[in-house]
C-alpha cells in the first residue's frame, strides 16, 4: 500500500499515536514554553528576579500539580525546562509522563525583522533543527512547537505570509522526520481596529498557504496539530464579538481550510482573559467538529496561577489549585459543557497589551 508520507519516516505510526493522545477528549495543552526573556516578564509581574532558580521553582509548581493529567494531555516546555528536575531530583519529563501528559518542546529561535516587508517579522530556527530535534526526542519530547506571527495592521504582506508558511512547513517536515509531532502555529495577532470579517479573510489566506507548503513538503497531516488564533475582531475594534460569533467565524475558517485528516486544533489564547478563552472554546464545541477542538493556552492558563503564587512557598498549593481550576474549566469547554458560574474576578480580566511582543 502507499505510504502516508512519501519520504519514508520510520516514525509514522508513533506520530499518529502521539497526536491522538494529545487530542484526546476533555484534554488540551498547557503551554509553558516561555523563553528566558518572556519568563522574566512573567516573574517580574510578581516581583521576582529572572534567575534559573526562580524559573525552575515556577515550572516545578506547574508540572507537579497533582491530577493535572485529567485535563492536560501535553505540555510545551522551553529547552531549559526539558533538561531540568524537581528539587527532589525527579526529571520534569518524568513528572509529566507519570500523569500521562506528553512532553513537548519549543524549537523555534524567535522572531526577527523581515527586510523588504512592511515592518513585519520572520521566525528563525531551521539551521541545525534536525539534530536538535533528535536530541529532544532522546530527552523525552514527543511533540514540537514553532510559533511565527502575522500582523494585520502591518499588511500582512504577501512576502511575510509566504515566509511564515514556508518556515512552518519546513519545520513540520523536519519534526516528523525525527519523531516529533509538529504544532503548526501561525499566530495572527489581535492588534488592530479591523472588523472580524477582515480577520477571517487574513486567516483564510494564511492557512491556505500553510497547507499548500505543508503538502509540498510531504508532511503527514494525520501527524500534526494546529495552534491557530481564534477569528475575532481586532482588539481595538469598536465592538466586541460574542463567543457565538467568534465560534461561527472561527469554525467557518477551519472548515474551509483544514482537512479532516488533521487530528487536533489547539487554540492559543492571544491575550484574551482566562474566561473569554474558555467561553470561546466552549462555544466552538456546541456541535460535533471533524477535528478535536481544544486549547494550548499559556497566559489564559497561567495568569491566576502567577497572581496566587507570588513566589511564596506557602502559596504553592493554592496556585496549583488555581491551575487545576483553569485546566478543568477548559476541559469542560473542550467537551462543550462549561458554564461561567463560580468564576473569580481575576478570570474576567483581559490580558491584551497593544503591540505586545514576547
Ligand atoms: C508561552 O509563550 C510561548 C513562547 O513565547 P516566547 O517565544 O516569547 O518565549 C508562546 O509561543 C505561546 O505558547 C503562544 O503564543 C500561546 O500563548 P498564549 O498566551 O497566546 O495562549
TrEMBL record:
Coiled coil: none
EC number of this enzyme: 4.1.2.13
Catalytic activity: beta-D-fructose 1,6-bisphosphate = D-glyceraldehyde 3-phosphate + dihydroxyacetone phosphate
Keywords, sorted A to Z: Chloroplast, Glycolysis, Lyase, Plastid, Schiff base
Keyword Lyase: yes
The protein's annotated pathway: Carbohydrate degradation; glycolysis; D-glyceraldehyde 3-phosphate and glycerone phosphate from D-glucose: step 4/4
Gene3D superfamilies membership: Aldolase class I (3.20.20.70)
Name this polypeptide is given: Fructose-bisphosphate aldolase
GO cellular component, one term: chloroplast
Cell compartments where the protein resides: Plastid, Chloroplast
Gene that encodes the chain: LOC110792711
A biological process from GO: fructose 1,6-bisphosphate metabolic process
Record InterPro entries: Aldolase_I_AS (IPR029768), Aldolase_TIM (IPR013785), FBA_I (IPR000741)
Record family assignment: Belongs to the class I fructose-bisphosphate aldolase family.
